[in-house]
Amino acid sequence: MASSSSLPQNTITDILSRLPVKSLTRFKSVSKNWADLTSNPAFIAAHIRRSSPDPYLLIRRYHSQSGWDYGIWLITDPTLNFGTQLLRTPLEQSLPRFPKIVGSVDGLVCLDISPCYASDFVMWNPGTKQFKRLPLPLISSTRDNPIWMVFHGFGFDSFNNDYKLVRIVSFRGNDASPFLRVEVYSWREGVWKEIEERFELALLCGGQDGVVVDGSLNWSAIGLQRFSDRKVVISFDMGREVFKTVPLPPVTRYGNVKVVSYMGLLAVAVYPLVFAASGNNMNRFEFWVLSDCEDGTKRWTNLVVVENFSKSLVPVGTWRDRELVFKYMGARDRENQSSIFLFDPVDQRTRRLAIDCVDFCFEGFSYVESLVPVN
User: In what residue span(s) does the F-box domain sit (predicted)?
Assistant: First the structure.
């Protein structure tokens, strides 16, 4: 039997790139050559490419009424006889509240550990168990100029080979429009910087994190002035660090909007409002994708319309970038405790997952194991 030293380097690299992170971490102490290889950026990127087509489901949940019984869970395959692992989050015992997941990209999970104003963050790799508490942001709340709302997002900037955390801070202005300041944390440089870039003609909707789509972070917003007849998406290009406003289809004016990534494209799920004035609410679910046209322009395409859609079903994201994840918000079904569903927009097939989240607040993210360092 051939020893590892007699095998070609390419063969060794190929074999190791197929192994789980736990095994690769153990191998670092066995061989200096393997430790150097698995720390090489090219190897780390190759390992991510092999892991990306088959991501896990990372969920954060806590009991809606009590705020307790919380946890971050890793589910290997929600559609089969899956394995479930409760993750031990960094600094958990010393935190004033349970961490919030800002985003999950290439095995790095960004956590918001602050009590308010999204002002304290941790970069965490659950696979290697490494974590790093980030420097405090530059923009803070003061007595004379208190923060109103904060929006954030975490993603990968492929142009600069960098992971970035974006923080949009809103202060109450003198008129109807809030005053905004924007700052960006660079994983590569390890520092925050405030940027001058701003966006206009939109008010960001509360309670959402930026969704990564093709190198940009995206938030839904209420359109103003010439966009007042619809909602819009505020898109931040992480490479050029500029904003742009993407108008949504007019139907979004009459429903809730959830921004998601679908097959690498920007998409929105439009669903009924729970409370709405008579005549101003839609009773259907629609799924729209921003597609590329032959002439180089982009156009919204309606993929799915479901009439008489239940107000108890709320889209919370996508898994594997091709199936929508829904949470059931209605009364508990005694015969079946599951409350999470997967919906495929292509064949419109629905699958119920054996995850009990009826009485829980729920957030779901795709997650792949990786060797990406937190520094």
Answer: 1-51
Under 8 Å CB-to-CB from 286, ≥6 apart: which residues? 251, 255, 269, 270, 271, 302, 304, 305, 306
Reported residue count of the chain is 375
* Contact predicate 214/244, CB 8 Å: no
Query: What whole-number distance in Å separates Cα of residue 157 and Cα of residue 210?
Result: 14
Take residue 168 and report the two structure tokens written for it: 């949009």
Of the candidates 76, 81, 75, 125, the residue with the CA atom closest to the CA atom of residue 105? 125
Using a 10 angstrom Cβ sphere, with 0-12 exposed, 13-18 middle and 19 or more buried, the burial of residue 272 is buried
User: What letters, b where the CB count within 10 A reaches 16 and e where it falls short, cover 343-370?
Assistant: bebeeeeeeebebebbebebbbbbbbbb
User: What is the C-alpha to C-alpha distance for residues 17 and 24, in angstroms, rounded to an integer?
Assistant: 9
Alpha-carbon distance of 52 to 54, in angstroms, equals: 5
pLDDT per position as a tens digit, 261-317: 999 999 999 998 765 555 556 788 999 999 988 888 899 999 999 888 888 888 988
Let me know: does 289 contact 298? Beta carbons within 8 Å: no
Residues 6+ apart with CB under 8 A from 47: 17, 24, 370, 371
- How many other C-beta atoms are found inside a 10 Å radius of the C-beta of residue 237? 16
What tokens were used for 335?
């015969």
Q: What percent of the chain has pLDDT over 90?
A: 39
Contact status, residue 298 vs residue 288, Cβ threshold 8 Å: no
The Cα–Cα gap between 202 and 224 comes to 5
* Residue 91 CB neighbour total at 10 angstroms: 14
Nearest to 286 by CA among 269, 274, 301: 269
| Cβ contacts of 97 within 8 Å, gap of 6 or more | 115
Residue 3 CB partners (closer than 8 Å, separation 6+): none
Tens digit of each residue's pLDDT (9 = 90 or more) over 152-173: 999 999 999 999 999 999 887 6
